[in-house]
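<goal> How does this chain fold?
<sample>
Here is the protein in question

***
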Amino acid sequence: MNATTTEATNGTPAICQIAATALVIEFQLPKRGKSATLTAKVGGEVLQVESLDITRSTSRDRFAEAICKGRPGIDRKAVDAELLRIAAELAGRDGNGDNGACSTGAADMPELDTSRIVRPERFITSDVCGLAVPTMIEKDGTPIGQWLLYLRWHDGRREAKRLPRSIDLPDDHGKEDRNARKLWVHPTPAEPTASQKSGWTQPARRAWIRGTSAPDPAKLFAALCERFAHFLHLPKQKAPGITATLSLWTMLTYNYPAFDAVPYLYVGGPLGSGKSRVFEILARLAFRPLSSSNLSAASLYRTLHDRGGTLLLDEAERLKQTNAPDVGELLSMLLAGYKRGGQATRLEPVGDTFRTVAFDVYGPKALACIAGLPPALASRTIPIMMFRSPPGSNKPKRRIDAEPHKWQTLRDGLHSLALEHGPAWLELAERDDVCPAMSGRDYELWQPLLSLANWIESNGARGLLALVQNHAQTTIDESRDDATPDHDETLLRLLADAVRIGDTPSAGDILDSAKQQDTRTFDKWTARAVGSHLKRYGLTTNKTGGRRIYGRVTLGDLQQIQTTYNVELGFDDEPADLDA
């Protein structure tokens, strides 16, 4: 909706005309104080005249409500925006300008607590849990999109409404400030298009509003596992852990706002191993999936900022082309979106200049490729390695949409489960007892899934936590194996062998031994390269008798490296005090 405004001068009202409704707001800025006189007219008819403190949101809300109540043709958002502009103009005057003295400055404007701002697609607070659904309706013979917000309050009350700009919380906080009893919904998403599916069917939404119970968590989890197992060929020994991890991650896509960080999935494996099939399943189950293999970085982070959801980035090999400008932007967005509050920033043109704009890109993401991911991005992922099906397997031949009702039943169940247990999701984010042996990035990656596994187990899925814990530890160990290059392991083992017999070799001595074992690999290496690689593990030389040797490296240091990086250096799992 367009609005045109004339500037207020001494004694002359300014006029804002909101064109689509012929609404005119005349306002007289005060010579002193904070009360402006506002007059709202439509077609010459005066709707409202009031002198009010325009800097107070409660005053603006009251005036806007009086204008818009019973008049559906007036756009409330346009009215609110204009009133806020007038307030900013008043607050920004320095008291010495032509418009009269005013002691109120911008610092006196009421400020919002940013923790009260929630994203519309999915939010979880102690008061209310919300989830927005895109829908299509018919108006004047034309299909148009609208957003419906479904709310589940802490007292069990269920509610559906058109997506508002703010949500009033129960008046039980003992606070006089009205803004302290609100949640502000931001950003306002673009109108849904016909291609934007709701995921949650209207019959299921109506049933939920009427009080139908959410599905049993353990049964829903088992049904998710069945879908993954039905279409994916996995090694028998690893299949339970992989299907459980995929199912837990799918459930997490509906509840990730409760956590400080969300693990990404990396689906790897050779050509034809089923990576795309994993994505086909996730596209039918994950919360608001966005499938992409060739969208530009700018398109992706604008879309994620506007509508949120789960990014499914297939054929992600291009992420290793870090010199390409678009890839650099995409990689930056992916690295930032791992943690809550993660933003991608970009310079956007404004007239003849540019300004920095931040896009919210936090959320679950799955990436699939053959060649692997850049190390910084790989460290934010839980790897799922796929394998080609044997010739006799029927799984690759199964049509993914042969039973569409099963997918829809699961989607409906995931939506209602996500709304029904808001307080539980907040509690899960605090659980550190489910992964006591993990720390750092391993803890960030697995804590959400393990806490969710523990909650599902408490609802009937016996043994689930232990299964996922074992799978997590195996995955972590294998990732460490992959993270330590073979040539590094050779150098570490040669140094360990020397220290074990009391020797204090130099980098050149270690290189000579390495060339004897593997001439092809180490033929063009230098002693400086050896020192550089060993330094990555905290191993440095000291100068003695004119030579730089590894004289201060102890067996305890090397055993710690064996434990930390999961390399085999010949130490027992629980040795005696090797530093003694």
Confidence is low (pLDDT under 50) at residues 1-15, 94-105, 574-580.
